[in-house]
Amino acid sequence: QVQLVESGGGLVQPGGSLRLSCAASGSRASIDIVGWHRQAPGKRRELVASITDNGSTNYADSVKGRFIISRDYAKTTVYLQMNSLKPEDTAVYYCNSPWGTLAWGKGTQVTVSS
Fold first, then answer.
1. Can you say how many angstroms the Cα of residue 28 is from the centroid of all Cα atoms in its chain?
2. SS3 15
3. How far apart are CA 109 and CA 111, in angstroms?
4. Residues 6+ apart with CB under 8 A from 55
5. At CA 22, angle to CA 39 and CA 1, rounded to 5?
6. Closest CA to 53 of 33, 38, 70, 36
């Protein structure tokens, strides 16, 4: 079992920054390819960033240049640094494999509003 717990969300003004954390725990810590997904009200969940076992990263065009995904293997944690936030970034953010094959956590709410 792998448990994924997202944290770090909150309310920020447009142009602000947040850093999200995804902590993996359980009998087997996750070393899988990890992605950050988001889901806004009335919209489908979408993958915004991912990082592979060897540290290779990929980003959706909508966040490229603004978001940075990284991982701390010692802490079994994946981070999403979000900069220059826009109102359209408002969503619940989840971590999972890029294909959503792991158990979904509760996510963390990010609200970008003035």
1. 20
2. coil
3. 6
4. 71
5. 100
6. 33
Q: What is the pLDDT of residue 33?
A: 86
Q: In angstroms, what CA-CA distances link 22 with 13, 15, 42, 72?
A: 23, 23, 24, 10
- Cα 107 from Cα 78, distance rounded (Å): 13
Task: Return the C-alpha torsion angle 73, 78, 83, 89, nearest 10.
Answer: 170
Report residue 53: phi and psi, to 5°: -60, -35
What pLDDT digit, counting tens, does each position of 4-51 carry? 899 999 999 999 999 999 998 876 655 578 999 999 999 999 999 999
Number of Cβ atoms within 10 Å of the Cβ of 79: 19
Beta-strand pair 3-7/46-51: unpaired
Question: Which residue do the tokens 């915004």 mark?
Answer: 48
